[in-house]
Write a structure and sequence with these properties.
Layout lengths: L3 H19 L16 E2 L3 E6 L8 H13 L3 E3 L14 E5 L8 E8 L4 E9 L1 H4 L5 H16 L30 H10 L1
Helix pairs in contact: 2-4
């Protein structure tokens, strides 16, 4: 004779197993997955500000620090900013008006035939970023998002709040200004 509790546990285990077998597999973001499928040249990401990057230059340093503090990559700002003209710089920070709805863009302007981007421009549109609530957080989320593109990350479509999700933030959660563990793993594995 079977014990009723064991029979119930067995039935529950079978139902759970069947549901797991029918559930769609979790989708993971491939790497690289940015628009041009490039990666950065190495694990040290140098950056400089252009003369016109004046509205809130702190967003550049913030985004670079997120990269340097949460991944195995290092961020490096030159001690003497005029030195930027003489070094190969990974990120040049710009600001300009973009088409309606475009908050920031990253463009690799120096790419090797092997898919290595040795220098990117990150261009922010403060008018678009400041259209709504939470300007401080939105500026930084977009800056971190564009830096993510510079190291190979694409847009995150998982529905999980993180910096690589497209569009404006919906609250002030720190999760909007950080990379997901999955993306950090891609960065750490590659660099």
């Amino acid at each position: 004779m079977h014990h009723p509790r064991r029979r119930g546990a067995w039935l529950a285990a079978c139902v759970t197993g069947a549901l797991l077998a029918l559930a769609p597999a979790a989708s993971a973001n491939p790497f690289p997955n940015n628009a041009d499928l490039t990666v950065a040249d190495n694990g040290v990401h140098t950056y400089c500000y252009t003369a016109g990057f004046t509205t809130d230059a702190s967003v550049g340093g913030y985004a670079m620090a997120v990269l340097g503090n949460t991944t195995d990559m290092d961020d490096l700002f030159p001690i003497d900013p005029p030195f930027c003209a003489f070094m190969e710089t990974d990120i040049w920070w710009w600001e300009s008006d973009q088409p309606a709805g475009v908050r920031g863009v990253r463009d690799c302007w120096l790419e090797s035939p092997a898919g290595i981007c040795t220098s990117s421009d990150v261009d922010l549109d403060y008018g678009e970023l400041d259209d709504g609530d939470w300007d401080w957080e939105d500026r930084r989320k977009t800056a971190v998002h564009e830096i993510g593109h510079s190291v190979g990350l694409g847009h995150d479509t998982s529905g999980v709040i993180n910096a690589m999700a497209s569009g404006p933030i919906t609250d002030t959660s720190l999760a909007w200004r950080t990379f997901r563990a999955h993306d950090i793993n891609h960065i750490n594995t590659h660099y």
